[in-house]
Amino acid sequence: MGGEQDTRVYIVGAGPGDPALITVRGLDLLRKADCVLYDALVPVELLFYTREDAELIPVGKRWGVTQEEINRLMEIKAGEGKLVVRLKGGDPFIFGRGGEEAVYLRGRGIGFEVVPGVSAASGVPAYAGIPLTYRGVSSSICIVTCRESRSGGEKVDWGSVAGLEGTLVLFMCATRAREVREKLLSAGLSGETPFSSIRWGTTSSQEVISGRLRDLGERALVPPCITVVGDVVEFRERLSWFEGKPLFGRTILVVRPRDEALRLAEELRSYGARALIFPAIRFVPTTPRADLLRDALDSDWLIFTSTRGVRFFVHALRGFGLDVRAIGSRIAAVGGKTAQELSGYGIAADLVPGEASTAGLLEEFGRVGIGGRKVAILRGGIGNEALRSGLEGLGAHVVEVVLYRTVPAGEREAEILRPLLSGVDTFIFTSPSGVDSFLRAFGAEGRQALERGALVAMGPTTGRHLEEKGFRVDMMPVAPTDEGIIEAVLKSSRRDERRRSPPSSDP
């Protein structure tokens, strides 16, 4: 397949649906890719890990792109010198036509690598609580596609399949369920054999229909769907775990700068939610005047109100050839994460309030006393008037240095998200600029989605901004942190669950 330097195309398995199931290698390549050719069943959440300038091209039947056209696109993009990721659902070499694509690339002398993925054959049953093998119950697995070749070259020997006495995993069975049932019964498989059909497996939309083989197809099955047939299906009631997660069935959109949104989305997925992101804004560094920066460094206190402020501060220092180790001021951090970020640059915070907020900072400064002291706030383009006025009220002389500014972002992501917007039930906003950018990107469609969904505001400023735009804020965390947001969403989910549950009655 050629060495690393010769490889231009990577055929990558994205896994069966849960974006967390992509391999480390696959995710690393996505982050590096110049061009991504992706299928319809690839979780769109993975596309948010790509570079902002990466070319994203949807391919496959849904978009009317034939396999021949996909092959040619890989060749063209590789010929342009781009690092190409061909992103496919599940595993590329299991009913994914990855082999055909590899043969095409090899035939044209294009260096390629195949990165296996978690197959739907194993991942989907696992999330539904079905072990494909179990000692004393099943010691073999047979994976079958129910879509036989129209040319007659590929035919399933259903007699051999039925005689294996192991576990059957049926791909593309949904539209032919009754026909498949009759073939298995005719081949001698008992009508009492249990089955489970799993739709949108490993995702928060997962649905499972279970029964006996004689009933397969009596209830409509809708693709994408995997059907498992065999005695191991009986373990589902005991081993099912994914559907019991507290946010299972919820679809949440995090409106926040990319890196922070991805971290929060990953946390929300661990509770069973489908978590999408809209990177509404991004941050770009400013170039503060050297005299203003030196004036700030001459302060008694330097105040950092975010982790990004720390990063842009160090960036600004290095731009003027200054060393962070030369800082003689005392350091205040708004919370533990900001203090941790400072620590990564060898800077120890002298003051960290128990409550990670402006009020917490002011309370701590009131305790230590800053009357007559010079205090520098290192901030973004939008100032924190409450912090400035509060410090001045404590008698401090305040200077401010703008280290970065926000600009709108997410135009590419908006096009990916637009078809999914109607299915979002919870929206998380962490800043007023994020609200404005969302409304600008989605217009009337976005406004309607916000009116239907539950809205989470990270803090009072964002909450007021949403209300000024005419929306109702449903949740506001006690602490303006990721942990606080998650707890607020979990609490809301528990309330909703109680409302849906029928009242208990005494016997």
General description of the model:
The protein is α/β, with parallel strands linked by helices. The chain folds into four domains: 7-118, Tetrapyrrole methylase, N-terminal domain (Cobalt-precorrin-4 Transmethylase, domain 1, 3-Layer(aba) Sandwich); 122-242, Tetrapyrrole methylase, C-terminal domain (Methyltransferase, Cobalt-precorrin-4 Transmethylase, Domain 2, 2-Layer Sandwich); 251-280 and 409-497, Rossmann fold, CATH 3.40.50.10090; 283-408, 3-Layer(aba) Sandwich (Rossmann fold). The chain is 35% helix and 20% strand. The strands form four sheets. The chain has a five-stranded parallel sheet with strand order 3-2-4-1-5, sandwiched between helices. A five-stranded mixed sheet has the order 6-7-10-8-9, with helices on one face. The model is unreliable at 503-507 (pLDDT under 50).
